[in-house]
Amino acid sequence: MNFTFPIDALQQHQTPFYYYDMELLNATLNSINNEAGNYGFKVHYAVKANANDRILSTIKEAGFGADCVSGNEVKKALETGFDAQGVVFAGVGKADWEINLGLENDIACFNVESIPELEVINELAEKKGKIARVALRINPNVNANTHHYITTGLEENKFGINQWDLENVIKALATLKNVELEGLHFHIGSQITDLLSFKELCLRVNEIQKWFISQQILPKVINVGGGLGIDYEQPDEGSIPDFKSFFKIFDEFLELQPEQEVHFELGRSVVAQCGALLTRVLYVKNGVNTKFAIVDAGMSDLLRPALYQAYHKIENLVSAKETEKYDVVGPICESSDCFGKAIDLPQTGRGDLIAIRSTGAYGEIMANRYNLRELPLAYYSDEV
Ligand SMILES: *Cc1c(COP(=O)(O)O)cnc(C)c1O
After folding, report:
1. Which residues' Cβ are closer than 6 Å to ligand 1?
2. Same domain, 279 and 156
3. Is residue 6 part of a domain?
4. Residue numbers of the domain that contains 199
5. Of the residues 59, 67, 92, which should be mutated to test ligand 1's pocket, given the most ligand atoms within 8 Å of the CB?
6. Are residues 363 and 287 in the same domain?
7. For residue 164, what pLDDT band results from cuts at 50, 70 and 90?
8. Phi, psi of 77 (to 5 degrees)
9. How far is the CA of 46 from the centre of ligand 1 (A)?
10. pTM for the model
C-alpha cells in the first residue's frame, strides 16, 4: 500500500499544508491490530506524535488506547472519545492541575518517574478520596542507538526511576495509601531501527521483573513503550513499518507471568508515513556549489530537520527534467531553516509543487508561529 498524491487536487490549495493519506493510515492501523492481536498485546497511541482531530479520531475508531504526556493531551484524548480506561499519563514533570485532571477522570494509569512525584500523586488522590493506579517508569539503561536527543533509556537521561532507587520506591509504596501499583513502564527512545535494542529491553525487563517478584510484588501490566522507527530514506518501500517482526521480538523474549498484560505506546510508526508536507518553490537562487530552492514552508511548519538534523525525503511532484543538486531551504531568518542539502531533484523552478515525505509524526504538532507565520493547514485524501 503506497502513499498517493492526487496532484491536480493538491494544486488547488495554497501552500504550505500537510496532506494525509487516510487509506495508508487505515492500512497501518489494521496491520498493527492484526500483528499485536496475534499475541493479545494492547496498543496505546502516543498522542504527542500527531494530535490532529481527524488523525486522532481515526486512531480511536481503530480501538487504540491513548498515551498522553500532558494534561491537555489527556483532555484532548477524552474529548476525542478515548475511553478513560485506555488513557495513560506519562511525563517527567506533571503539574498538580494535570494530575488532578487525570484523577477526576479516573484514567487508567499514571506512569510515575520519581519518588517525589509518587508522593504528590498520593497526596492529591487522598484529597479526592481516590486511589490512583500507577506504573513505575523504570530506566532500564538500554542504549537505543538513535539520535542523542531522542534516546531516553540511559541512566544519564532525565527520564524514569533508576534501578538503584527501586528499593526506596517500594518502601514508599508500602506507606502511601492512595496509590496502587498497576505495572512497570519502560520507554527507551524513538526512531529505533535496530530491533536488537528491543530484545535487549526485553532481557532487562525480565531481570527487573524477577527482582519485583522476589519482593512479593507482581505487576499486572508490563508497558514496554514505543520507539519503533520508520524508513525515512524509502517512504514508499517502507510505507508500513514491520510490525510483525517488532511484536514477535516481545513475544519471543519477554518472560511473562500468568494473566500479565503487555502494553505498547507507539507514536511515530503509526502516523509518520501517512503524512507529507506540501510546499511550493518561491525562487531558485545560485549558490557557490549548489543551487538554493527556496520554498514557502519553513522550520515553523516542520521543525525536525532544524531540531535534530532529521532527514526527510524531498520530491518534486511536477518536474520530470534532468536532475540537479539543490539545497532546499525555507524563508525563515535562521541558517538551520534547511530541509536538505545537495538533494538530487529534477530541474526545479518557481511554482513547482514539492513534497517533504514521512512528516505525519512530529510534524504538524510541532508547528509554531516563529516569524509570525501562519500555522500550516491540513487536507485529507478522502476530502481533497
Ligand atoms: C514519545 C513517547 C512515546 C512514543 O514514541 P514513538 O517513538 O513516537 O513511538 C511512547 N511513550 C512515551 C513515554 C513517550 O514519551
Report:
1. 46, 48-49, 67, 69, 90, 187, 190, 225-228, 265-269
2. no
3. no
4. 22-271
5. 67
6. yes
7. confident
8. -60, -45
9. 6
10. 0.95
